[in-house]
């Protein structure tokens, strides 16, 4: 079973395949792993070279190769037999507005409840949690924005960062979240393409040039899982007296990249079992696909955060 997520950030680095082994050569030596154990390869290095044999071997092994630009996915390479499912594409393009709205409501409810669950792990006695949960379960028109404001306020308090404000272009620890969400987006896109789903047709986010609105939609419930690991990283750095995470130009270290990639392998609750978050993402997207084909919301299981071992740490 393939399960390893390989991150290539050494510069320079050369990737190749020999006798069923993935080889990564850099100035620090050669590392190898059986190709059959690899689920995906994320390339962040700007000086990474790949042979045609490597690309063909990855395709035969059904491995996705994600190429990043400034930690954001720029290209996704998949086997040719994983092209878009045309029947599914028609269902997405012709989806009734009511079904689209109901699928989004299910997605949004999961996200808001996950934010509340995580905040409860950070500050279990906080007086605002009850109102936060009521808001998350409501049908209030602007509940996404209202829940987000409550969530980030509680994050700032729990992290001991009173001046923190969440913003993609803001400083402080915001780049940590930007990178974490880029990894999440990569995983969502990989699963969408792997299941033949064209991400150009969203259920809430607007379609625009060079965008993947459906990926932005379906990643929403999973953001809190990455938020939890960002919080864990900040607390670890504070315990060690390391302040580099505050410096936007240098906070995305190799150790941080490895830490965040580990989020996809974290054990999370799934019914009466625990599974890696990566698999929970795949299952959720499979259920979304089934809902689209059935033209009803019932099959769609928007992921709920029931257990993350380090959520409250």
UniProtKB/TrEMBL annotation:
Enzyme class: hydrolase
A family per Pfam: Cas_Cas1
Gene3D superfamilies: CRISPR-associated endonuclease Cas1, C-terminal domain
Cofactor: Mg(2+); Mn(2+)
Binding-site positions, Mn(2+): 144, 205, 220
Subunit structure: Homodimer, forms a heterotetramer with a Cas2 homodimer.
Keywords: Antiviral defense, DNA-binding, Endonuclease, Hydrolase, Magnesium, Manganese, Metal-binding, Nuclease
Record's function text: CRISPR (clustered regularly interspaced short palindromic repeat), is an adaptive immune system that provides protection against mobile genetic elements (viruses, transposable elements and conjugative plasmids). CRISPR clusters contain spacers, sequences complementary to antecedent mobile elements, and target invading nucleic acids. CRISPR clusters are transcribed and processed into CRISPR RNA (crRNA). Acts as a dsDNA endonuclease. Involved in the integration of spacer DNA into the CRISPR cassette.
Transmembrane segments: none
Entry GO MF terms: DNA binding; DNA endonuclease activity; hydrolase activity; metal ion binding
Organism of provenance: Candidatus Akkermansia intestinigallinarum
Name of the featured protein: CRISPR-associated endonuclease Cas1
GO annotation terms (biological process): defense response to virus; maintenance of CRISPR repeat elements
EC number: 3.1.-.-
Record-stated family: Belongs to the CRISPR-associated endonuclease Cas1 family.
